[in-house]
Amino acid sequence: MTPDRPYHHGNLRQAVLEQATPVVRDRGASELSLRELAAAVGVSHAAVRRHFPDRRQLHDALAVEGFALLGTRLRDAVDAAPDYRAQIHSLARAYLDFVTSEANLAELMFAHKHGEGGEAVSAAAEAAFAPMLLVFERGLADELEDTSPQRTALIFFATLQGLAGLVNCGMITADQLGGLIEEAVAQFPQGRVGR
Predict the structure, then answer these.
(1) What is the pLDDT along the chain (195 residues), one digit of tens a residue?
(2) Domain residues of the chain, as ranges?
(3) Is CATH 3.40.50 what the domain over 1-53 is classified as, yes or no?
(4) What is the spatial distance between Cα 54 and Cα 38, in angstroms, rounded to a whole number?
(5) 27 CB-near residues (< 8 Å, 6+ apart)
(6) Residues 46, 160: Cα–Cα separation, whole Å
(7) Helix (H, G, I), strand (E, B) or coil at 61
């Protein structure tokens, strides 16, 4: 199929996203070109622009997919751990594994601009982090009144994000991460043992 012929596939939008994902993974979001993606899928640039009028909308769609993948990994991490303490360790490992192995995608996910079209990215991010908040809400239910699960979850996330940034820029090695996770998790309220 030449790029000038009309596209007769049932889901051009998804085909473009599938072509864009390895580009982001290997070279970064700045290397995405709607024209190159159109050529790779075998359609015209105009056909791609019907789904993604500009790169920002393509970036937002990739961010939504990235947050969906992250959310699945965080839910799986919670489900695989028997109790609160194990869950926060499991969440930390799952989050850091995702953000360090998918560094370019994570950068795109967290770089989205709020505004027109950004609502979907914000909603996807909120859904992705819901398992983390739920763990702290359940685990800290019996803590003192001044212990806020929302604030604790935010500080936990910020701590993990900082560690990921240090790994991704080469300041610490992946080998050092295990010990740092243990130390970081130990700083958080230990909560109750049961789910």
Answers:
(1) 444 444 455 689 999 999 999 999 999 999 999 999 999 998 998 999 999 998 899 999 999 999 999 999 999 999 999 999 999 999 999 999 999 999 999 999 998 766 666 899 999 999 999 999 999 999 887 665 667 889 999 999 999 999 999 999 999 987 888 899 999 888 887 765 444
(2) 1-53, 56-186
(3) no
(4) 13
(5) 104
(6) 41
(7) helix
